[in-house]
Design brief:
There is one protein chain. The chain contains 4 helices and 17 strands. The strands form 5 sheets. Strands 10, 12, 13, 14, 16 and 17 form a 6-stranded mixed beta sheet that branches. Strand 12 (186-192) and strand 13 (195-209) form a beta hairpin. The N and C termini lie far apart (90 Å). By secondary structure, the protein is mainly beta. The chain folds into 2 domains: 4-134, no CATH class; 139-295, Immunoglobulins (Immunoglobulin-like), CATH 2.60.40. The model is unreliable at 1-72 (pLDDT under 50).
């Protein structure tokens, strides 16, 4: 018979913590999940035992899962428990104790079953002399590479300077210092077996919350103020306070700068790639006073 499993059962299977095997990876002596150009194939099989599933019977192809340029999540493989009875076709001509029988569920098969409106999907059941090698999930390696990086909040350069006093109606200039840890690019890699993923992080924008209920989004590092600029407004990233900071509960405005780090990763030597995002925040406080001269 054809071995099927309810979709809900996959959640339990995936929650076991077992590492999946790449769908395109063959195994010793049995069926496999194979890859067709532009699609992933989930495998099912027919058998006349209660365990079901003779290796080698290929299922239908499903569309790729996830973003363009990235592979679907790896399949989940686990040793069948209990093992099939002696004489079962699942042993593929081998005897109990000579290797073991495993099952595999591919997320791509779930996507196909959902698209077809089905509540069940096929499981690939196969014999292998050794435990299938764990798959390398490049997204896990990408996160490991990011974890090696020191990604900090913006290095705030603001005028008036923290500790000083600005005036209502006078331009405030905001800028973020540029270094590998506060702006990027920041690069790191992580490897598992023969697979290496390289990740590169760079800040794409900084959102400045000015403490007076307004925010300013700057898509570049901004411009540092110089005394020669006088009362000119920042051409890239600035703000003008309409009320003194004495109206704030603490008597000062808390200015927070939140940086969005866009992280591009790719598997070395292949076209597989993706993107991650990290957010980091820094803060300073400003005192803004009422200027009688400017408001008279």
């Amino acid at each position: 018979m054809k071995r099927l499993v309810p979709l809900a059962a996959f959640t339990v299977l995936a929650g076991t913590g077992l590492t999946g095997q790449a769908a395109a990876q063959p195994h010793a002596g049995g069926g496999m999940c194979t890859t067709q150009p532009g699609s992933w194939v989930s495998v099912c099989a027919d058998d006349h035992t209660a365990h079901g599933g003779t290796p080698g019977h290929k299922g239908a192809a499903t569309k790729p899962v996830g973003k363009a340029g990235t592979a679907p999540p790896p399949c989940v493989v686990q040793k069948m428990s209990p093992q099939p009875a002696a004489g079962s076709a699942l042993w593929d001509g081998h005897r109990p104790g000579d290797g073991a029988v495993y099952t595999r569920v591919c997320p791509a098969g779930i996507a196909g079953a959902q698209a077809a409106g089905s509540l069940i999907l096929p499981i690939d059941t196969f014999w292998s002399a050794t435990a299938p090698a764990p798959a390398v999930d490049p997204r896990v390696l990408a996160q490991q590479a990011v974890d090696k990086m020191l990604l900090e909040g913006p290095d705030i350069e603001i005028s008036p300077r923290p500790g000083g006093t600005g005036l209502v109606g006078m331009p405030v200039w905001m800028a973020a210092g540029q270094s590998a840890t506060t702006w990027g690019p920041n690069t790191a890699n992580a490897s598992a077996g023969a697979v290496t993923v390289t990740a590169t992080a760079k800040v794409s924008q900084v959102v400045w919350s000015m403490g007076d209920g307004t925010s300013v989004t700057c898509h570049g590092p901004g411009s540092a103020y110089k005394t020669s600029f006088g009362l000119r407004k920042s051409p890239t990233c600035g703000h003008v306070y309409a009320q003194p900071s004495s109206t704030a509960p603490s008597g000062r405005y808390r200015v927070t700068a939140t940086a969005t780090w866009d992280i591009d990763w790719q598997v070395d030597g292949t076209g597989e790639a993706g993107q991650l995002t990290e957010v980091r925040t820094s803060a300073v406080t400003l005192t803004i006073a009422q200027s009688q001269a400017l408001n008279s």
